[in-house]
Amino acid sequence: GEQVEQLPSSLIVQEGASVLINCSYTDSASVYFPWYKQEPGKRLQFIIDIRSNMERKQNQRLTLLFDKKTKHLSLHITATQPGDSAIYFCSARNYAQGLTFGLGTRVSVFP
Amino acid sequence: GALVYQYPRRTICKSGTSMRMECQAVGFQATSVAWYRQSPQKTFELIALSTVNSAIKYEQNFTQEKFPISHPNLSFSSMTVLNAYLEDRGLYLCGANSGTANTEVFFGKGTRLTVV
Predict the structure, then answer these.
(1) Whole-angstrom Cα distance, residue B18 to residue B97?
(2) Do B108 and A43 touch (CB under 8 A)?
(3) Which of A75, B71, B103, B116 has the most CB atoms around it within 10 Å of its CB?
(4) How many other CB atoms are found less than 10 A from the CB of residue B75?
């Protein structure tokens, strides 16, 4: 089945800096790649997604790049704020499966 | 907007007993509902995917005998954890979407299961 590797496992940055999170997947049949943010006590929050027919998607301070050939995704968060502190998960899905999640990246943003 | 309500939010059960959790989709048709478990300090593991009018597909290490799922219509799904033991503790999430595999998945807030 699908496997998703996510790196790094944790990041500590100062407010205003940028963050880069990388994910790779194994199943070439995966077509949908949503990313989520998990904060303590809150609902898993959808932040951005990309489909396999796209290469780039931007949503305000988030930019998601997708390389179908290398099966690689990267999420870039610019101008980080303390409110961006959370665990971020990438995931992948093909037509016959639920989502397969990466192990998560704990991002800590200090003022 | 589309929302998924999941309940209970927290539950404590004695080792060897069972507990049921439910999800209600509002504002969209939950054609597919997947159940996940996040064990302490771990990522979200897919337990099973249920698609209306299709068989429920369980992932390796998860069985219908242990985690029976019901998905009777386009707005409701439930899952029971039978004979819960310590290793079953964690946050259980349901994620639902309509249409095809590349549509947004909406998650409930989760049911946190503690086994004592």
Answers:
(1) 27
(2) yes
(3) B71
(4) 17
